[in-house]
Amino acid sequence: MNLHLKIAGIISLGLILFSCNNNRGSSSSDTTTPVWVEEVRHRNIEEYITTTGTARAEKTIEIKSETTGAYYLQKNPKTGRPYKLGDIVEAGAVIVRLENKEYENNAQLESKKLQIEITEKEWEGQKMLYEKGGATQKDVNNAKNSYINAKLALENACITLEKLSIKAPFKGAIVNLPYFTPGVEVASGSTIVGIMDYSKMYIETQFAENSLTKLAVGQGVHITNYNIKSDTLKGVLTQLSPAINEDTRTFSGYIQIENPGLKLRPGMFAKADIITVRKDSVLSIPKDIIKNRRGGKLVYTVDRNSAEEKVIQTGISDDKYIEVEKGLEAGDKIVIKGHDWLRNRSKVKVMK
Prior knowledge:
Elements: H1 2-29, E1 32-39, E2 41-64, E3 69-73, E4 88-89, E5 94-99, H2 101-107, H3 109-132, H4 137-162, E6 165-167, E7 172-176, E8 185-186, E9 191-208, E10 220-224, E11 233-240, E12 250-258, E13 269-286, E14 291-293, E15 296-303, E16 306-317, E17 321-326, E18 333-337, E19 347-350
Parallel strand pairs: 1-19
Antiparallel strand pairs: 1-18, 2-9, 2-13, 3-5, 3-8, 4-7, 5-6, 7-9, 9-12, 10-11, 10-13, 11-12, 13-17, 14-15, 15-16, 16-17
């Protein structure tokens, strides 16, 4: 009797296990995987070589006094207040005046202006006498020479007095403005003001030796900085050294940057993406959805709630997208999320 019970128990257990296996297999075959899709479409793709460097202003100057004089900081006509650090000055604007009575007296501007009038009239008089035979050509030339010397004397006097006016040689921002008490005597050679125009900037950087054949002067550049993430500035590769550094296996290059809004500041660390290849309106997909299997690249498309493997050939890529040369058509629905759990012909449910 016990033997019969044992046999019956074994048979029952086998039936239970068989039933469970059938249920598991049935469940597996009916599994539906949620996926998210997007249509394959055309995009412009740019392939980059990325480098970094410190942005520097193309124009910068530190102006020193050429003579002694009493210091007087001028007012900014835009604000009505004395110039300060960060103010934008126009080319030719007087930032500081130095007063030096001895310089002004020695210039004798009024006297030199009068001398020009006198010598000009004498020259005209000699020319009239020469036409009437009352003067020689030498007399005319001497009068002309006196007139020219008088003009030069006035110009030199004006140049001398200009040294008392500290002017901006170009439009830019005040980046250095040492403090002096108004009216204090400033010695010749003292630093008065520093000006920087950073509407155009440049980066001196290094490139790896293996990028030598991909780079060329004139290539466009995208410039970004972590402080101005929402803005990408335009640049151009302007210089490339033909020499390779033996120690670092790199070569140097210069990138010019357009900075019209002055958002990139001198001294900022910038990332430069040099455009080595650009293709317009090519089929492209997100790079991160591609799977590498058996030496090939594949993605999943969705057709009638079923996933289908598509082997593709790719071309150039940027940081997000990659060109599809073969294997997909515009409008194909590719799986962009949920593809990690898919196999060919897996049942899927497209999520919105």
